[in-house]
């Protein structure tokens, strides 16, 4: 019966739950799904992490390559994030070039990296005007069940914290770079941005961490990115139902709690790996 | 979106009018519509109105490596963008026949006529040259796109200034507009395209066809010419046969039109230069016709910001203060952590445990020595087998390996191929022996 | 890091802005919008026939295309398209035209800062010109916080470059609530709330401008 109701009237089905201040999967309105984090999942990458947010699974691999610094910033390196939504993760995505959602997500991640200054691109420079690191951050969604952005940011942050770059020296004779793979050092992570996504139902009810179904039925979505100092790195609301300043403030409060939770999680997991070795 | 087709009676009406030497907008056969050329705030940005047809030309440049066969020539790139804004029939991102035709004609008109000195665009021979990119955006389609595009492209090229560069050893320095005055391109002559449309197998001829006329025409002749009456390109399409003196007559008309248009472009450039020198405001914002009823302008407006700070503080203070304490994450095995209120995902418990075991291995992968210790079930089986074999006959274990790899089984009837499952099978075979 | 908390100076200015409607013959609705030197053209087609693959059974399909000044649209344009489209979807009454298509094309003519807000304003004016049913109007306002912590509205490209945070809001005309936000740089909660309040103030000016231009358009005298 319930299954039929859910298929025939998905919106009514959700409304009947939201009326009682809970959601079809048993969560409260401001409750996240279980977040599972695994660090160092890909042994061939320079840094990697796998994040599960309920069923949504995102894996992030970071590959560092040597390159020439950009002309406009000779003392800088590059960070190139890319979000991939393959047909594997959901039937809604088609094979071929990245769709609008994947492109918008890549742009969002790039904006967050730039705005939050999670890594200063100056740190990636090896020799001014000659050599720098390029960090290719590939985020691949393995299972799509809503709230892609939150999972991506956690995966990216954890993978960056896990990244170990080899030592590079430029030999004085040949002026060719020499890579010492034995000697590796971690990246300096300046900030810990964490995203919290919200959906608005029926122009009024605010829910956190939406599933794919909730996303498709919602009238608006927004993502708040905060760092450990409580500063906002991004407030991304592409459109949809309008919100008052007060409502936005509620979202920000929830996001700061989430930020602490995730930062603690990442640090603890990283710590467990370190003590293990 | 699909285009609206032209109705039969409209078509008949148009053709009949053309027969009577009358045009829809009251022009004479050889008349051009009103041409208006305005320049944007940037150098190299130009708008051309030809009646209701409106196009924008935009020139930009960048330093690139030259083509291998022309190491000391700059690169010219032309692109006419058929934006769906101009007509519902144009589709985004698809190369239509029309766009190929227009692009080809513009290239022939401006690149192949060698009107721009590409050698002056060379910075370091074989290494760095300027690539000049001309984008023509069609904004409104009311016929004769080619003429409008060619006027826009050449005016924009004339208006364009590239940044100055200096070379010291290997270093190439590009100066910004504030540091050094930018440099105009050297342009030898200005080819301009003039279009003629033919009706009723070439019996009737019209200059500068509008969109309606283009729809009923039989053929089109485009002549690109400069003011020295040199023909740079000539193209006839639509499959009509033209007599020699028809082409001659068209080229004569074209020469008159081209000298008129060249003069107009010259005047427009002169005006823009004066305006810039006088320091007055120039650019697109000034070209909005404010006398029209559909246009409105508002001057710079200050705003009252009295209570903004109070309002913001109010909202921030009224908001609930988030709890300082957060729950602690669970770390079941090194490298894995969980946070959340005991809600399991539907991946199932058993699988979860398996995964975590694997994760445990992966988590410690960073140390190279431990890599060795990591075995998959398949490999385990193999080791087991080798151990067993080694226990019985030591020498054979090596040849066993070989047997698997090079596909020369001792007993071809029994030994299967070297697929992964074959190891299992072989192991059981051995047991039987 | 000692960051000075943003405050609002008494003289917050909007650059001069101008708009022309219905100036293109082909589209069903068109508008050009100018903020200082930043200028944008917008054209709307529809409601018209929709491709079967894009058909939505209970409402119209809205497509937004942004054409940059140089080159082809890239990832940045995609994300701007998403912002404009979802803002328009929220204010248009799309369910009145089921199984049909609306196409909004925005052409950037010159970018001198506050581009996204200019795109939004041009979009709203062109939708109005096309006579499409809307539940409310919207306008875009960009705020920048400069290195001294001053809030600047409607910044130029040079001011944008100097600023440490940049925020663009779309404000609706009914309750002056926030329809869309897009931000760059990091900022505190208080700064955000101040910028929202500033934008809400600025939106009143813009809505007044909308009203004046429509009044002028349908008046008998100039």
UniProtKB/TrEMBL annotation, chain A:
Q: What SUPFAM superfamilies does the record tag this protein with?
A: Ribonuclease PH domain 2-like, Ribosomal protein S5 domain 2-like
Which stretches are annotated as coiled coil?
none
- Where found? Cytoplasm; Nucleus, Nucleolus
One GO term of the biological process aspect: rRNA catabolic process
A single MF term (Gene Ontology): mRNA 3'-UTR AU-rich region binding
Keyword set, alphabetical order: Acetylation, Cytoplasm, Exosome, Nucleus, RNA-binding, rRNA processing
Query: What positions does the domain Exoribonuclease phosphorolytic occupy?
Result: 31-166, 193-255
Q: Does the keyword Nucleus apply?
A: yes
Q: Which Gene3D superfamilies does its entry note?
A: GHMP Kinase, N-terminal domain
Point out the signal peptide segment. Answer: none
Its main subcellular localisation, reduced to a broad class, is cytoplasm
Q: Which Pfam families match?
A: RNase_PH, RNase_PH_C
What cellular-component terms does GO give this entry? cytoplasmic exosome (RNase complex); nuclear exosome (RNase complex); nucleolus
Of which family is this protein a member?
Belongs to the RNase PH family.
Name the PANTHER family on file: EXOSOME COMPLEX COMPONENT RRP43 (PTHR11097:SF9), EXOSOME COMPLEX EXONUCLEASE RIBOSOMAL RNA PROCESSING PROTEIN (PTHR11097)
Question: Under which name does UniProt file this protein?
Answer: Exosome complex component RRP43
Q: Name the source organism.
A: Pleuronectes platessa (European plaice)
TrEMBL record, chain B:
User: What compartments host this protein?
Assistant: Cytoplasm; Nucleus, Nucleolus
Indicate where this protein is primarily found: cytoplasm
**What start-end ranges are recorded for coiled-coil regions in this protein?**
none
What region holds the Exoribonuclease phosphorolytic domain? 32-163, 189-255
Q: Which CDD domains match?
A: RNase_PH_RRP45
- Give GO terms for biological process: exonucleolytic trimming to generate mature 3'-end of 5.8S rRNA from tricistronic rRNA transcript (SSU-rRNA, 5.8S rRNA, LSU-rRNA); nuclear mRNA surveillance; nuclear polyadenylation-dependent rRNA catabolic process; rRNA catabolic process; TRAMP-dependent tRNA surveillance pathway; U1 snRNA 3'-end processing; U4 snRNA 3'-end processing; U5 snRNA 3'-end processing
Q: Where in the sequence does UniProt note compositional bias of the Basic and acidic residues kind?
A: 371-391, 408-417
Question: Quick one: where's region Disordered?
Answer: 348-433
UniProt biased composition (Acidic residues): 349-370, 395-404
* SUPFAM superfamilies documented for this protein: Ribonuclease PH domain 2-like, Ribosomal protein S5 domain 2-like
Origin superkingdom: Eukaryota
Q: Name one GO cellular component term.
A: nuclear exosome (RNase complex)
Q: Which PANTHER family match?
A: EXOSOME COMPLEX COMPONENT RRP45, EXOSOME COMPLEX EXONUCLEASE RIBOSOMAL RNA PROCESSING PROTEIN
Annotated family? Belongs to the RNase PH family.
Protein name as it appears in the record: Exosome complex component RRP45
Organism of this sequence: Pleuronectes platessa
Traced from the root, the source organism's taxonomic lineage reads: Eukaryota, Metazoa, Chordata, Craniata, Vertebrata
UniProtKB/TrEMBL annotation, chain C:
One GO biological process from the UniProt record?
poly(A)-dependent snoRNA 3'-end processing
Q: Per the record, GO CC terms?
A: cytoplasmic exosome (RNase complex); nuclear exosome (RNase complex); nucleolus
Q: Where are the transmembrane segments?
A: none
Q: Which GO terms fall under molecular function for this chain's record?
A: DNA binding; RNA binding
According to the entry, every stretch annotated as the Exoribonuclease phosphorolytic domain falls at 14-133, 137-201
InterPro entries xrefs:
ExoRNase_PH_dom1 (IPR001247), ExoRNase_PH_dom2 (IPR015847), ExoRNase_PH_dom2_sf (IPR036345), PNPase/RNase_PH_dom_sf (IPR027408), Ribosomal_Su5_D2-typ_SF (IPR020568), RNase_PH (IPR050080)
What subunit structure does UniProt give? Homodimer. Component of the RNA exosome core complex (Exo-9), composed of EXOSC1, EXOSC2, EXOSC3, EXOSC4, EXOSC5, EXOSC6, EXOSC7, EXOSC8 and EXOSC9; within the complex interacts with EXOSC3, EXOSC8, and EXOSC9. The catalytically inactive RNA exosome core complex (Exo-9) associates with the catalytic subunit EXOSC10/RRP6. Exo-9 may associate with DIS3 to form the nucleolar exosome complex, or DIS3L to form the cytoplasmic exosome complex.
Q: Which family does it belong to?
A: Belongs to the RNase PH family.
Output the PANTHER family linked to this UniProt entry.
Answer: EXOSOME COMPLEX COMPONENT, EXOSOME COMPLEX COMPONENT RRP46
UniProt-recorded name of the protein: Exosome complex component RRP46
Q: What is the lineage of its organism?
A: Eukaryota, Metazoa, Chordata, Craniata, Vertebrata
């Amino acid at each position: 019966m319930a299954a039929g109701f859910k298929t025939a009237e998905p919106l009514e089905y959700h409304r009947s739950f939201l009326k009682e201040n809970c959601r079809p999967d048993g969560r409260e309105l401001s409750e996240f799904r279980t977040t599972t984090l695994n660090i160092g999942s890909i042994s061939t990458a320079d840094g990697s992490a796998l994040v599960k947010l309920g069923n949504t699974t995102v894996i992030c691999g970071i590959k560092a390559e040597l390159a020439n610094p950009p002309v406009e910033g000779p003392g800088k390196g590059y960070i190139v994030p890319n979000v991939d939504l393959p047909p594997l993760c959901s039937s809604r995505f088609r094979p071929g070039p990245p769709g609008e959602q994947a492109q918008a997500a890549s742009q969002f991640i790039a904006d967050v990296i730039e705005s939050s200054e999670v890594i200063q691109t100056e740190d990636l420079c090896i020799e001014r005007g000659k050599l720098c690191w390029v960090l290719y951050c590939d985020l691949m969604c393995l299972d799509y069940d809503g709230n892609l952005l939150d999972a991506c940011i956690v995966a990216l942050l954890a993978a960056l914290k896990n990244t170990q770059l080899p030592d590079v020296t430029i030999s004085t004779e040949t002026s060719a770079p020499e890579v010492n793979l034995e000697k590796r050092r971690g990246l300096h992570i300046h900030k810990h941005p964490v995203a919290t996504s919200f959906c608005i139902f029926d122009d009024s009810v605010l829910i956190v961490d939406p599933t794919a179904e909730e996303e498709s039925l919602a009238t608006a979505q927004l993502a708040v990115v905060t760092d450990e100092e409580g500063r906002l790195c991004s407030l991304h609301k592409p459109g949809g139902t309008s919100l008052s300043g007060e409502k936005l403030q509620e979202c920000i409060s929830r996001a700061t709690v989430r930020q602490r939770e995730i930062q603690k999680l990442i640090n603890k997991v990283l710590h467990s790996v370190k003590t293990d070795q | 979106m699909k285009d609206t087709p032209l109705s039969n009676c409209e078509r008949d009406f148009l053709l009949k009018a053309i027969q009577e030497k009358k045009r829809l907008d009251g022009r004479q056969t050889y008349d051009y519509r009103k041409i208006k050329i305005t320049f944007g705030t940037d150098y190299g940005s130009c708008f051309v109105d030809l009646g209701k047809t409106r196009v924008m030309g935009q020139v930009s440049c960048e330093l690139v490596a030259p083509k291998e066969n022309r190491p000391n020539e700059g690169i010219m790139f032309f692109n006419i963008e058929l934006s769906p804004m101009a007509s519902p029939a144009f589709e985004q991102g698809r190369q239509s026949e029309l766009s190929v035709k227009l692009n080809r004609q513009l290239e022939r008109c401006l690149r192949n006529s060698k009107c721009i000195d590409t050698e002056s665009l060379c910075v370091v021979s074989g290494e760095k040259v300027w690539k000049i990119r001309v984008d023509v955006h069609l904004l409104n389609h009311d016929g004769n796109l080619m003429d409008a595009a060619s006027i826009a492209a050449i005016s924009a090229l004339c208006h364009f200034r590239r940044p100055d560069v200096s070379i010291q050893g290997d270093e190439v320095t590009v100066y910004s507009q504030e540091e050094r005055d930018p440099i105009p391109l050297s342009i030898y002559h200005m080819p301009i395209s003039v279009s003629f449309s033919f009706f009723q197998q070439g019996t009737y001829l019209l200059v500068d066809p509008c969109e309606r006329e283009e729809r009923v025409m039989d053929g089109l002749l485009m002549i690109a010419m400069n003011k020295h009456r040199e023909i740079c390109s000539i193209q006839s399409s639509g499959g009509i046969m033209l007599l020699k003196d028809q082409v001659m007559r068209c080229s004569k008309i074209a020469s008159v039109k081209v000298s008129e248009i060249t003069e107009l472009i010259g005047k427009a450039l002169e005006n823009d230069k004066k305006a810039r020198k006088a320091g007055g405001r120039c650019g697109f914002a000034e070209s909005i016709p404010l006398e029209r009823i559909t246009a409105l302008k508002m001057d710079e407006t200050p705003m009252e910001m009295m209570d903004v700070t109070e309002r913001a503080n109010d909202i921030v203070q009224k908001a609930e203060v988030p709890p300082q304490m957060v729950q602690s994450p669970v770390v079941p095995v090194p490298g894995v952590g969980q946070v959340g209120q005991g809600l399991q995902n539907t991946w199932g418990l058993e699988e979860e445990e398996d995964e975590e075991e694997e994760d445990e291995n992966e988590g410690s992968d960073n140390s190279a020595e431990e890599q060795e210790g990591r075995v998959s079930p398949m490999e385990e089986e193999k080791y087991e087998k080798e151990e067993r074999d080694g226990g019985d006959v030591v020498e054979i274990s090596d040849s066993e390996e070989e047997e698997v790899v090079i596909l020369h089984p001792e007993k071809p009837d029994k030994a299967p191929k070297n697929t992964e499952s074959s190891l299992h099978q072989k192991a059981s075979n051995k047991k039987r022996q | 890091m000692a960051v000075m908390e943003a405050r609002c100076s008494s003289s917050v200015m909007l650059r001069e802005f101008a708009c022309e409607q219905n100036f293109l013959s082909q589209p069903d609705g068109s508008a050009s919008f100018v903020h200082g030197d930043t200028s944008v053209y917008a054209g709307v087609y529809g409601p018209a026939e929709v491709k079967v693959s894009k058909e939505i059974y209970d409402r119209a399909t809205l497509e937004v295309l942004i054409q940059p000044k140089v080159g082809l649209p890239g990832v940045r344009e995609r994300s701007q398209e998403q912002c404009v489209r979802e803002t328009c979807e929220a204010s248009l009454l799309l369910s009145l035209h089921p199984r049909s298509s609306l196409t909004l094309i925005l052409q950037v003519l010159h970018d001198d800062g506050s581009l996204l807000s200019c795109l939004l304003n041009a979009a709203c004016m062109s939708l109005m010109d096309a006579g499409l049913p809307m539940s409310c109007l919207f306008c875009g306002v960009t705020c920048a916080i400069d290195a001294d912590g001053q809030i600047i509205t409607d910044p130029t490209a040079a001011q944008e470059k100097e600023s440490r945070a940049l925020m663009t809001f779309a404000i609706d005309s009914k309750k002056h609530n926030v329809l869309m936000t897009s931000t760059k740089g990091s900022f505190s909660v208080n700064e955000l709330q101040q910028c929202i309040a500033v934008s809400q103030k600025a939106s009143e000016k813009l809505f007044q401008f909308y009203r004046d231009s429509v009044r002028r358009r349908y008046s008998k005298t100039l």
